Amino acid sequence: MKAGLSRLSLLLLLVLQSSLSNALTVTVLDNKGKALSDIVVYAEPLDQQAISKTDKKLVISQAKKSFTPYISVAQKGNKLAFSNKDDITHHIYSANAKRKFAFLIRPGENIEQPSLETTNEIVMGCNVHDWMSGYLLVVDTPYFDKTASNGSSTLNIAGKGRYKIIAWHPQLNEKNNRIEQQINITDTQQVTLKLNKTMHKIPEQKSEDGFDFLSDY
Length: 217
Fold this sequence. Notes:
The protein has 217 residues and is mainly β. The chain folds into 2 domains: 86 residues, Carboxypeptidase-like, regulatory domain (Immunoglobulin-like, Sandwich), CATH 2.60.40.1120; 88 residues, Sandwich (Immunoglobulin-like). It is 9% helix and 42% strand. It contains 1 helix and 16 strands. It has a 5-stranded mixed beta sheet with strand order 5-11-10-7-8, with no helix packed on it. Strands 12-2-14-15 form a 4-stranded antiparallel beta sheet, with no helix packed on it. Strand 10 and strand 11 form a beta hairpin. The protein is globular and about 50 Å long.
């Protein structure tokens, strides 16, 4: 009976926490007002609000000789793994990580990496296929996502108060590749972030000459 009550109490607590969360819709537009997809958006607390630590694993794949997805985002402390979906070997490396990595990953192989212990903007590449590029943003908040095709994403914020809302993408033509705005979250609300300049072109992950002499590597 006590075990049943404990489970019921836990369920009621989870429902209560969910009902107390504040739905924040963040929309990102280019400098002409067009919706932008696949932009990382996240919320950083400014009033010492307690934030939860998530125990998630981020998996970055290599498929069709490209990083999939091109941009990934995770919370500090999350686990990281790479999964090679191609029928060829890749040599993955980080160009600027505080804890650098470099390893061969063979066809169908999955490789675990150390947990992401520091915030960072990690540039990734492949020594075999030099046109491959990918980015990993590590943030110190559980409130993050990427915008959908309509340029929007909804973050469920647990605590009210002041937050810094940030939009990030490696090709944003802004200081530190991001734009930000401070808001006071009191309830369900919306915020729109608009770029000041035209966004840089996103590079294509394919050989420029269409010839890959290492295709059987």
